Amino acid sequence: MRMTIIGGGSLGLLFAAKLVPLCKGLTLIARTREQAETLAQGGIAIQEMSGERRIVSHTDISIECYNGSADETVQGLRNADYVLLMLKQPAITETLLARLQSELAPQACLICFQNGIGHEHKVIGALGAGRVLFAVTTEGAKREGGTAVRHTGHGVTYIGGLTSEMNDNLLQRHCSLKEVLLQAGFQADLSKNMEERIWNKLAINCVINPLTAILKVTNGQLLDTAWTRSLMADLFRETSEVAEAYHVSLAQDLWTTIVQVCQATSANHSSMLQDVLGGRPTEIDYLNGSLVSMAGKAGLALPNHNMVYRLVKAMEG
């Protein structure tokens, strides 16, 4: 199986480092020339949950760069069986979609790992529903520099299309992908309920990420006081109200899952906290911002989501 990962962030580096021994070929496409050159010279340094540290040699992985230019050559798209899109939503531009549309190998399937909602129909519109899968994951990782990553929490990764239709050949192929992920140490499964799972992950991110960014705490520290737990509960309640208004069924045990995610990734710095600390734009517009917008159209008020949205936007400057 040949894989290409687009994005050298925390999850991109984590998945690349753990999948490379199991692939016939793995290409990592970084977004900056500087990161690509550093990776090409020294490979990826990974620290496992056990504390074990190892280096994935630069000779075992192909490194390319794509910074959004329309005239860049990206060989990794042309021979991959699966392309894991691990960029944040703002990076999914029309230029990128046009590049995927023109250069993605005929047999390739794109798997989108984005947080939030809004990207699904844009990607499907460019490539077609039959070539696009979506993934939600609760794996925790923290990038430490441009070439190092620390695995901070085990989670579950669900993969599937937005429609439940899948012929036997595709199902067998995707089962092979699941087996590769399991061998790499990821708890993975195929799902026919991806819309619900995307919304469940949206709820998890909308409760955890902005609070960790505003309070500058790890995921686990959100459970330390009654005050932070009450803030989490208020955000969860409002998220449930929006889902109900749009006839989306959330998992009955979702609140328990949110608490378990905080516990399982207790040492993790959320991606939003990492962005705030790094002075980068966050994904708040695609998380809490999306809920606030949808609530407005449904005639709902979300005072808690609106407040954390405004606070994170103020922190972005």
Tell me what the structure shows.
With 317 residues, this protein is an alpha/beta fold. It folds into two domains: 2-192, 3-Layer(aba) Sandwich (Rossmann fold), CATH 3.40.50; 196-316, Orthogonal Bundle (N-(1-d-carboxylethyl)-l-norvaline Dehydrogenase, domain 2). It is built from eleven helices and twelve strands. It has helices at 10-19, 33-42, 94-103, 120-127, 168-183, 194-215, 226-245, 254-264, 271-277, 288-297, 303-316; strands at residues 2-6, 25-30, 44-47, 53-56, 62-65, 82-85, 109-112, 132-137, 140-143, 148-153, 156-160, 187-190. Strands 5-2-1-6-7-8-11-12 form an eight-stranded mixed beta sheet, sandwiched between helices. Helix 10 crosses helix 11. The radius of gyration is 19 Å and the shape is globular. The protein starts with a strand and ends with a helix. The model has no long low-confidence stretch (mean pLDDT 93).
Mean pLDDT: 93
Number of strands: 12
Determine the CATH topology of the largest domain. Answer: Rossmann fold
**Oligomeric composition of the shown chains:** single chain
Rounded to the nearest angstrom, the distance between the terminal CA atoms is 44 Å
Cα-atom Rg, whole angstroms? 19 Å
Give the CATH superfamily of the largest domain: NAD(P)-binding Rossmann-like Domain
CATH architecture of the largest domain: 3-Layer(aba) Sandwich
* Distinct helical segment count: 11
Name of the CATH first level of the largest domain: Alpha Beta
Largest sheet: 8 strands, mixed
Structural class by secondary-structure content: alpha/beta
Task: Identify the strand order in the major beta sheet.
Answer: 5-2-1-6-7-8-11-12
Count of individual domains? 2
Order of helices and strands: EHEHEEEEHEHEEEEHEHHHHHH
